[in-house]
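Example (one chain per record):
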Amino acid sequence: MRAITLSAVLAATVLWAAPAAAADKIVIGYQTTLTGPGGIQGEEMVNSFKLAIEHLDNKIGGLPVELIVLDDQQKPQMAVQNARRFIEKDKVDVMAGLLYSNITEAILNSVLPSGSLVVFAGGTASQRAGKECHENAIGVFWNIDTSYREIGTYLKKQGVKKPYLVALNIQPGKDAMNGFKLGFGAEVAGESYTRPDQSDFASEITEIRRVNPDAVVYFIPGGVGFAFMKQYVQAGLKDKLPPYGMTVQVDEMSFPALGDAALGLKSVSNWSPALDNPSNKRFVEGYRAKYGRTPTTLGAMAYDNALLLDAGVKAVKGAIEDKAKLRDALRKVDFPSVRGKIRIGANNTPVQPLYLNVVEKNAGGALYNKLLEQLVADAADPHGKECALK
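Predicted structure:
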């Protein structure tokens, strides 16, 4: 009897200690905005994510991929509905993608309490990198306020004394301007916050003339931003005060609407198609060959979304049923980012280089963002100290 009991204990111990078996596939629920004004951006994200999977031989971490793509229609309620479908019907292993911060927040608030794992490429609220950080929410994006902090630092070094700030009157706009003030470290000459549906910027332009600043910094993405920039150029201000912003506001998706109004605009990004590393070369060349133009920062983040997942799944040898181990691997693993050397910080937000670009025309007359310099090698967002994760 004693021998039987000992054997049973040993067998149970071996079973308990055995590593989890590799799954036969990975199911990824990818959600972004595919209709409405933001549809072109979401389409680029999906195209880039799929391109990365193609470059990985249609596998993530060695596992065949089942990719389910849904459109959030830029509506938080639809996004939450899609996320619930991913969990309850599709039984996804991980959710990915996401574009707008309000959509991301709606999804995270809905699914994180259930233990779901979300590895996302789009924006989120600044507090998500701080006091509302969560171990199961891992981003490969950029923080808006971090980018604008570096604009502030750069302009301070350039001797700017009286910057004027213009931003959308939404939380990301406020985050951007707060980030700028943190980096600039001094009083600004003035600031204006515009409506999301605004089309006439005469009052803002008049105020800029009155204040007579020595630099203008703006965060007005999308169609509203195009209208602002065209009116800014028509007012004759661009040559005297070329505004500074994020490259996502002035890139290959913006050039058709902006035209030559984009020439000379300087911007900060966490990526450039000119970066010299194997992953970036493969991404840029592959995207140009497949879609006929240079990709943008949003595409780069989506491509990196897949590369991080690939490295994390490899690290756990395909045993993705253990969500805690997969999550911990994703937070710590090195992966071959198109941005070069980056890492996921303790608050699940990237620590990464940031670059300064300027819009010029290439030899063929096409607009492009010329990489001027690296502003910082390892930009960490300012909210990490408020995050309880280690």
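Caption: The longest helix spans residues 297-315.
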